[in-house]
Amino acid sequence: PNVAVLKVLAGEGFGADVVSGGEMDRALAAGMPAEGIVFSGVGKTDAEMDRALAVGIGQFNLESEEEGVELAALAAARGTTARAALRVNPDVDAGTHGKISTGKAENKFGVPYDRAAAIYARLAALPGLEMRGLAVHIGSQLASLDPLEHAFTRMGELMRAIRALGLAVTHMDLGGGIGVPYKTGDAFPCPADYGAMVARVTHGWDATLMFEPGRVIAGNAGVLMTRVIRVKPGASAPFVIVDAAMNDLARPALYDAWHDFVAVEPRGGSMIANIVGPVCESSDTFAMGRTIDAVAPGDLAVFRTAGAYGATMASTYNSRALVPEVLVDGDRYAVVAQRIDPATILAAERVPEWL
After folding, report:
1. pLDDT at 94 over 90
2. Active-site residue among 187, 235, 280, 355?
3. How sure is the predictor about 140, in pLDDT bands with cuts at 50, 70 and 90?
4. 222-347 sits in which CATH class?
5. Fewest beta carbons less than 10 Å away: which of 42, 130, 200, 349?
6. Annotation says 190 is catalytic
7. Is residue 281 helix, strand or coil?
8. Selected residue with higher pLDDT from 235 and 185
9. Domain-by-domain residue ranges, the chain?
10. Which pLDDT belongs to residue 198?
11. Number of helices and strands in the chain (H, E)
12. Do the beta carbons of residue 285 and residue 241 sit within 8 Å?
């Protein structure tokens, strides 16, 4: 996420869940206190964990017993103690797209539910490690609270089982996952309903609760603006060719995701069209056979709900420029990420002398 956006969230008292050393550095640069940072992810390197220990982050969410052993050794070598939670895979189907499901047994995240208590106990005995809680995250863009309630109920049972072993469980990271409506008319759980469910399920837990809302904060706060290059006849519908592409907004190519397409200054009327970008493969398609505002070459339009997993997933595929990011607040605006053009991309590359 852009550091300016993180700065806004830091001002509202948010911490950060990070999955790389780079994300940790962004959170710190935005003014988020180190103790408000949780480091998740299955592939933390020793260098990243050592850096996180050096700055004093609040918690590591351990994804395996092996990772916990490595972290304990790093902390002991520094003469410090790492605060950690164990991420558990509860084998709950979130009912979301398979590529963003994270809580089923076949997913790479966390330790198996039935082995979690034993792993927790072994890690709690290691010098350099303070095991203080459990973590769970079953997926993203959930359309129902039922899978979350099931997962949280299982986590509560596990928490009580670990406490029965005489071990402390003071923090419970319940992850995120609430979806947002990408398509006009779609209905998703609201944060208030989510909060009521959490309050009911966690009543009596006597633990600090932690949450990782992401998409639900940023998704509808951003749009991708594009311009129509031309309209080309097609076999079943015309192709509306825009100057944005899959390198700018990857979700439709990756997940067949829907993003509403709306003209900035509607001409009136509608058309059925295929919306595509300039990249050299057929997956560079935003919509097929969709009814949209009537547009013509030169018109500006936006893809809505592009504030999450938009700019952060962008690439320079086809040596295309990275689009600038503009932050708007009422009647104020600022460019918070400059356009990175092909010349800048090329300048970072080197031809060895022996060629």
Report:
1. no
2. 280
3. confident
4. mainly beta
5. 349
6. no
7. coil
8. 235
9. 3-219, 222-347
10. 97
11. 10, 16
12. no
